[in-house]
Amino acid sequence: MKRVLVTGSLGQIGSELVVRLQELYGHKNVIASDVRRARHGLPDNSIFEVLDVTDGNGFYEIAKKYNVDSIIHLAALLSSVGEQNPQKAWHINMGGLYNALEVSRQLGCALFTPSSIAAFGPSTPKDNTPQDTLQRPDTIYGVTKVSGELLCDYYHKKYGVDTRGVRFPGLISYKTLPGGGTTDYAVEIYYEALKAKEYTCYIEENTKMDMMYMPDAIDAIIDLMEADASKLVHRNAFNITAMSFSPKEIAEEIKKLIPDFRIKYDIDPTRQEIAESWPNCIDATAAKEEWGFKAKYDLTSMTEDMLDKLSRKLQVEYNPPAA
């Protein structure tokens, strides 16, 4: 990557990724874009364009204007929000991806687009989920992710577009709140632990899901995009993960640092059903072997870092017990 266009740059991943890309490639070589006009969270000297990814002509013109060689396409509706409006989710997730692929084909750009553990479904093996396995998701978000994986494979085979992607687990960050995903509880719980020392969780206490701390997710995007293309077999849908835990387990980890923290449960049937359709833990062997993926954070180290960084952000008192 030399000059990069990031779509959905004001979202949970994009807002942190843009800053990291600027550090690596320079502010002038990173073009942030989003359908929202607000630039909150981006450095003041960022190049920013308003872009609705469902507008193919607008997408093309911005990519051409800046002569980008790579596109990181993050714009999408997430799982819970998607179930509220499946038609809109399809329009944005698939229409936007189609435009990103067409722009990449026409301008010769490399393209990264994330898939998700939502691409699996109730009939997928739950434990140590293989890289190549049965995928029959029952949410519109999952359907768009499987469709996206196949479409990216097709554009690589048919047109030679350098398409790459990972299946992200739930992502946890202290910098930006998530935007309507099933795993949002794993971010919200840290906020409420610091502010109220209590959290009401919408997922059942023993429901496990794969998770990852945002620094590892950002590294994964960059490492995959910089990887030797000749070594990539799967290209568009690498399983990656860092940890797998339940609400009960993350609460117990928080209690080690905030002893009076308490968790309660008020289950959301829709999000619980979605969570139960996803794997408990997935196998990331292909990513490790083909481009050297390796996560740095586990649940303990992530919790320590999250509470420390978030307490400063929220300006709340935080005095963990001495080790």
Indicate the percent of residues in helices: 40-55%
Strand content: 5-15%
Q: Which stretches are poorly predicted, pLDDT < 50 over at least 5 residues?
A: none
* CATH topology description of the largest domain: Rossmann fold
Order of helices and strands: EHEEHEHHEEHEEEHEEHEEHEHHH
Compute the number of helices.
11
Strand order of the largest sheet: 3-2-1-4-5-7
Short overview:
With 323 residues, the chain is of the alpha/beta class. The chain has helices at residues 14-25, 56-65, 79-84, 86-107, 140-159, 185-195, 214-226, 247-257, 269-277, 285-291, 299-314, and strands at 4-7, 30-34, 47-50, 70-73, 110-112, 115-116, 163-164, 166-168, 170-172, 198-201, 209-213, 238-239, 243-245, 262-265.
